[in-house]
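Because showing beats explaining, we think one record worth quoting, sequence and backbone structure tokens together, and here it is:
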Amino acid sequence: MKAMILAAGYGTRLEPLTLKRPKALMPVANIPVVDRVIAYLKRNGVREIIVNAHHLHHQVTSHLAGRTHFGLPIHVEVEDEILGTGGGIKNVEEFWDCEPFLVINADILTDIDLRKPVERHRQSGAMATLVIHDYPLFNLVRINSEGHVEAFLSETQPGLLAFTGIHILSRSVLDYIPPNTFYSIIDAYRDIIHDKEIVASYMASGHYWRDIGTIDSYVQANIDMIGTEEILIAQGAVAHPASHLGGWCVVGHGCSIGEGSLVENSILWDGAKIGKEATVVNSIVTQDVGDGVEIRDQVF
């Protein structure tokens, strides 16, 4: 099966982090989220992947260029003008063959077994199958008694379910997406439903799932990966013996923490240098912190 990772978006909910890196390259426990998604797709039987890019696309292209350790072909399609979730899928029409294909958002971390919804899709004859779950914050999808999607709503309410950002599509869905223009895949699904065709669902349960699309959820994803009382220090990072790391911490590649400094419940991106007698608490640090500087409860 082929798959697409949707990674072209601006990631505005993650600003100011996404002013420096595209959302797909946000490090989660020192591993870019796109690398985690690629590994997840490979574990679930995907044999070839395409990633779309727009915002800070040179970083995405550079990161994925020549990456062979994943053991499967990975392509990057740069969008000169951002095309949206539907337009992005249509834009790589030549990549898809006659088989169903899988699409996943770049900011999703999960362990849902994808083989089950893929098999459900193949058996159902649906034009698309959305992987859904009960997640009250995002419950916007109405499903009927047959498990078919009836509607996408704008506000949560009892009886609705949430779209996980994972879907399996048959090639015929492409006929509902206009070429060379910004278009939402949800609008395509609405048109399919209007035409009395089937958009099916697969109900996932008992799994891990996190959308890292906000600062709070990004921080929580890091905690999820390492635990609440763990210190993760990447290869090549150095903490002075007289520094102190407390609570949970993620220290990126090439970081240094100076003498007498405190780092607690924080994320240090690759290369960040923490000076002497500095304090970093409940923060995300993307750059150097000078001697004696105090950073608390902020993105720096």
